[in-house]
Automatic annotation (TrEMBL):
Coiled coil: none annotated. Its cofactor is Zn(2+). Its EC number is 3.5.4.33. The lineage of its organism: Bacteria, Bacillati, Actinomycetota, Actinomycetes, Streptosporangiales. It catalyses: adenosine(34) in tRNA + H2O + H(+) = inosine(34) in tRNA + NH4(+). One of its GO terms (molecular function) is tRNA-specific adenosine-34 deaminase activity. InterPro entries: CMP_dCMP_dom, Cytidine_deaminase-like, tRNA_aden_deaminase. It comes from Actinomadura hallensis. This is tRNA-specific adenosine deaminase. The active site is at 57 (proton donor). PANTHER family: CYTOSINE DEAMINASE FAMILY MEMBER, TRNA-SPECIFIC ADENOSINE DEAMINASE. It comes from the Bacteria. Zn(2+) binds at residues 55, 85, 88.
Amino acid sequence: MPESFVPAMRLALAEARRAFEEGEIPIGAVVLDASGEVIGTGRNDRERSADPTGHAEIVAMRRAASSLGEWRLSGCTLVVTLEPCTMCAGASVQARLDRVVYGAVDPKAGAVGSLWDVVRDRRLNHRPEVVAEVLADECGALLIEFFTDRRVG
């Protein structure tokens, strides 16, 4: 099944590259509806928007909800280049997403299995399926390039 998410992850990577070009941490996300159509895209925009919630996942979920005309994203899949943080993992649960697919693991702040496992916490009322490490090397390489450039520049 992870292979089936490669095309969507490539779209998320394109969003991440746009974030990189804009000086944002290069994380991108897309939301797919139940038929696999893209209904929301997003990339990090915290610096540009001066919004602490400007994470790629939140931006993509807001656009998907707007596209559907409702906050419930039941039947939908979030595809993101980096393992979601606690805020984004919590938003995934609150949005009732069916699935969270991510690329690179985030051992420092990941909340979908690494540091925490918010989405699979049995105390919560909803638990999305998780598909991990789709194109992980490619997703991670973009982040390494960004932070290497920042240290050198």
